[in-house]
């Protein structure tokens, strides 16, 4: 592509098309001056359509938009039988004038470049033209030969052929005069100065520019639309509508983080310009994210999610997710510079997650990179979830991976917040500890799980479910994460004061009914949201004077097959029953086992618990409550949609 400097405005479509063609097809080291004036000794100036400073010579090109059959001779021309001007004679005359001017500028010992005239007959944009030259050496060419004539040695009419040196080119430019000023003028659009062309195709150009209204400057991008450079008016109109739509989108998104600012459209009659502030930072594909800390990675992800959320809330999607269109600053700001609004929200989130997945995995935080993996596959579109998780990790003081693995023992500190104090229970793949929150100085519970990949989906789902709900009779989940240099996960929980149901030394009249009713209401709430405990037994029910709480969610079937739960729910029975039925069975069996002598329970299995139930007085127990408990123990209680547990157990009046 030649360097084009426009001194004036093309006077017709033929010139516009010819200049565009020459600029596109001539080599990079060529200079194309259009609509330039050549000074004469008398002080007058002769306008030249195009002046090409090339490898073999300097060409004065006269552009003619003739359509039809042109018969060109040395002295006279005719177009379809009609006499027309001999343009080559004029071009040759101007070339001689230019050559004389250059000779006066050139110092002694330096040769002047060869200057010659040339005629470019365009036809109708390269078609509908037929040329017949009476002499083959005449410098008259159609679009099929013009570029070759300007770039090849055979196009010269000089008796001796020498290549034009850089110094000779400079002398020609000095002879023309004010070339640098004209170039500067051409590169200025209002207060924006074009610096570097980043993209050019047909009539669409993207320039790196500088905004300099006074004593300060700021970097900008200019999207320039030149209608005359397109093949036809329909294509030009299509691109113009796209540019106007982009301006409307950026105006709609003004104030959103992640969206670059834009200035009003500039239309000066020849071009349409959309100025966009240059994004800060570097593109995502060249970001050296391996050097970033976990905090920095999380901050980048947080700002990216927040920006995407704000864009979606205004009814727009990004669409342009190429890594070179995503910019990250030193402070972690993320900007999207190609907002197309061509996807739906779910597709946009999936594309976003795929673009930032490598950064998420580098954080080594399971709940972060697992969300990005799921979202990239289209199975998770909850931006609120990941934004809250990232913010929580930052606020809770998540640090980079420690150099040493944590040994799970009394005194160990988990996630820089929880110091283990007392071992409570364990299974093959999990442990439960009483711990203390170091900063808050309050007791809490910490469950630790081995085999991250095996248990991840279950534990992640459980944590997210429990962290978003509150019920006074369900333990409160505090945090979730992965231990450093390990495949072990942890979940921290609020510590419930009291003792487990099987450790109660003194039970007051009415307390069991109150506790049982509270836990029924908790199960009703959990089951309505498809959350199940999976291992209800006396060890997982913590009681105080007037309150009972379900604890130890997540150990699940580990506990169900341990010595605690085996007495209250045979795993073989559980395998054939639904999740809700299992929880109800565990709740009923736990209270019956606690309130009856061990000798009535046999081995603590289903038959023993049913036998213990029959030891109660039906009237004292309540006929309806007794019958429902018996159905639950026999797995005859059908937990269908709309079933009210409190009504089924005749316990509605007991709930405060």
UniProtKB/TrEMBL annotation:
GO terms for molecular function: ATP binding; protein kinase activity. SUPFAM superfamilies: Protein kinase-like (PK-like). It holds the Pfam family NERD. Transmembrane segments: none annotated. Residues 418-656 form the Protein kinase domain. PROSITE patterns: NERD, PROTEIN_KINASE_DOM. Residues 10-121 form the NERD domain. It comes from the Bacteria. This is Serine/threonine protein kinase. It comes from Shewanella loihica (strain ATCC BAA-1088 / PV-4).
């Amino acid at each position: 592509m030649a360097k084009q400097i426009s001194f004036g405005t093309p006077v017709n479509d033929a010139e516009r098309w010819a200049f565009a063609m020459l600029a596109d097809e001539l080599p990079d080291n060529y200079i194309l001056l259009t609509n330039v004036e050549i000074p004469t000794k008398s002080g007058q100036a002769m306008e030249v359509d195009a002046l090409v400073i090339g490898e073999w010579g300097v060409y004065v090109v006269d552009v003619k938009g003739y359509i039809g059959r042109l018969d060109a001779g040395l002295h006279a021309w005719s177009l379809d039988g009609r006499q027309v001007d001999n343009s080559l004679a004029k071009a040759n005359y101007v070339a001689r004038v230019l050559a004389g001017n250059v000779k006066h500028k050139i110092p002694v010992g330096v040769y002047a470049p060869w200057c010659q005239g040339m005629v470019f007959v365009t036809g109708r944009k390269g078609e509908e033209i037929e040329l017949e030259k009476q002499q083959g050496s005449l410098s008259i060419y159609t679009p099929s030969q013009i570029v070759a004539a300007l770039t090849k040695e055979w196009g010269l009419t000089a008796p001796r052929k020498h290549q034009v040196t850089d110094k000779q080119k400079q002398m020609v430019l000095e002879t023309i005069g004010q070339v640098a000023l004209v170039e500067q003028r051409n590169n200025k659009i209002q207060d924006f100065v074009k610096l570097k062309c980043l993209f050019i195709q047909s009539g669409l150009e993207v320039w790196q520019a500088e905004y300099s209204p006074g004593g300060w400057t700021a970097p900008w991008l200019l999207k320039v639309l030149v209608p005359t450079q397109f093949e036809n008016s329909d294509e030009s109109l299509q691109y113009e509508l796209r540019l106007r739509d982009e301006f409307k989108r950026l105006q709609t998104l003004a104030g959103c983080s992640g969206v670059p600012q834009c200035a009003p459209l500039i239309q000066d009659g020849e071009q349409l310009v959309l100025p966009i502030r240059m994004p800060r930072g570097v593109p995502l594909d060249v970001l050296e994210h391996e050097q970033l800390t976990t905090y920095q990675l999380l901050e980048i992800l947080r700002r990216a999610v927040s920006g995407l959320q704000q864009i979606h809330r205004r009814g727009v999607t990004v669409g342009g997710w190429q890594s070179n269109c995503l910019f990250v600053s030193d402070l972690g700001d993320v900007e999207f510079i190609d907002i197309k609004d061509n996807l739906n929200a779910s597709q946009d989130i999936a594309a976003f997650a795929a673009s930032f997945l490598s950064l998420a995995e580098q954080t080594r935080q399971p709940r972060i990179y697992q969300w990005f993996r799921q979202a990239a596959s289209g199975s998770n579109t909850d931006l609120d979830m990941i934004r809250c998780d990232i913010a929580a990790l930052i606020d809770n003081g998540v640090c980079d991976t420690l150099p040493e693995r944590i040994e799970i023992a009394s005194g160990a500190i988990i996630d820089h917040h929880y110091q283990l104090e007392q071992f409570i229970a364990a299974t093959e793949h999990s442990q439960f500890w009483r711990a203390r929150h170091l900063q808050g100085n309050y007791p809490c519970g910490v469950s630790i799980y081995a085999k991250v990949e095996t248990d991840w989906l279950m534990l992640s789902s459980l944590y997210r479910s429990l962290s978003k709900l509150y019920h006074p009779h369900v333990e409160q989940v505090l945090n979730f994460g992965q231990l450093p240099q390990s495949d072990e996960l942890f979940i921290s929980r609020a510590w419930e004061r009291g003792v487990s149901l099987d450790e109660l030394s003194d039970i007051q009249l009415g307390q069991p009914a109150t506790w049982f009713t509270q836990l029924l209401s908790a199960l009703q709430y959990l089951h309505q949201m498809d959350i199940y405990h999976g291992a209800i037994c006396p060890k997982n029910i913590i009681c105080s004077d007037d309150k009972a709480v379900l604890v130890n969610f997540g150990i699940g079937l580990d506990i169900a097959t341990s010595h605690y739960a085996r007495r209250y729910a045979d795993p073989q029975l559980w395998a054939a029953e639904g999740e809700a039925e299992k929880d109800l069975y565990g709740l009923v069996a736990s209270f019956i086992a606690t309130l009856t002598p061990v000798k009535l329970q046999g081995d603590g299995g289903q038959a023993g618990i049913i036998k213990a139930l029959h030891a109660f007085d039906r009237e004292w127990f309540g006929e309806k409550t007794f019958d429902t408990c018996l159905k639950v123990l026999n797995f005859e209680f059908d937990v269908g949609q709309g079933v009210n547990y409190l009504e089924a157990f005749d316990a509605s009046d007991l709930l405060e």
